[in-house]
Amino acid sequence: MAETLETPPGPGGSRLVEGLRTYRLIAGMWVRSSMTYRTSFAVTVLGNLLVTGLDFATILLMFSQVDTLGGWSLPEIAFLYGLSATAFGIADLVLGSMDVLGGRIRDGSFDTLLVRPAPVLAQVGADRFALRRLGRITQAAAVLGYALVAVDVDWSVAKVLLVPVMVVSGAAIFCALFVAGAAFQFVAQDAAEVQNAFTYGGTTLLQYPPTVFGKDLVRGVTFLLPLAFVNWVPASYVLGRPYPLELHRWTAFAPPLVAAGCCALAGLAWRAGLRSYRSTGS
C-alpha cells in the first residue's frame, strides 16, 4: 500500500523525523508530476541554468573592462559567487516555495494544511517543489569549480574542509531566511517581495566583495542579518584577505554556529507566527 500523509509515524518517531518524512512524500509527488513530461522538464532545467548564468555573465562583462573589482580578481569574485549561488541554490530547491504562504493565507487554503496530521512547516516547504531549480545549482557549482582551480590559494587541510562547510552552512542560513520570511507573512499576508529582498537580494549582494560596499551595509549583513558568514568572512580566510570589519581570525570557522543560531531563531519566529494565525473563515 502506498504511503500517505495520514500514515502515523512509527513508535519513537520524533517530530523531526515525521517532518522529514512528510517533506519527502510531498516533494516526491511534485517530482513525479514534473517528470511526467521529461522533455519539458529538461528544457526548463536548461532554461533555469542559462537564465541564472546571466548573473555571472554580468561579472564577466565587468572584467572585460577592468582587471580588479574592489581589489579582488576575477577568480576571487568567482569564488564568492560560486559559494553564495550554490548555497542559495540548495536553499531555493529545498524551501524556495515558502513565498506562496501569503497567497494561501489570503485565499483560505492554508487552513487545509492545519487539519492534516503532518507538520505544517514540512507541508509548506515541500509545496510546489520544483526540481527544475537544479539548473541554478549546476550553474553555480560550475562557477565554484572554476574558481577553485583558478584562484591563487595556498591550500591547507583547514581551507579545503572549510569550502563544503561554507556551502552547507550558507544553505542553512538561507533556509532560515526563507522560514523567517514565511513567518512574517502571517502578519503581513502579502510580503513575498519583502522576503525575496533578503533571499534573492542577499545572494546577489554576496556575489561581490565587501570592499565595494559601505561599512554600514557590511556591518548590517554581519551583525544584524549575518549573511556575511555565508562567504565573505570564511572566504577571506581561504583567500588570505583582510577580514571584513577587521573581525577576529576565528570567525572564519563560525558559519556552522551562525547557521544553527539563525535556524533556531527562524524556528521560534515560525512557531510564533503559526500561533498568531487566525483563519480567514472561508
From TrEMBL:
Pfam family, any one: ABC2_membrane_6
UniProt xrefs under InterPro entries: ABC-2_transporter-like
Protein origin, superkingdom: Bacteria
Name of the protein described by the UniProt record: Integral membrane transport protein
Protein source organism: Streptomyces lincolnensis
Lineage: Bacteria, Bacillati, Actinomycetota, Actinomycetes, Kitasatosporales
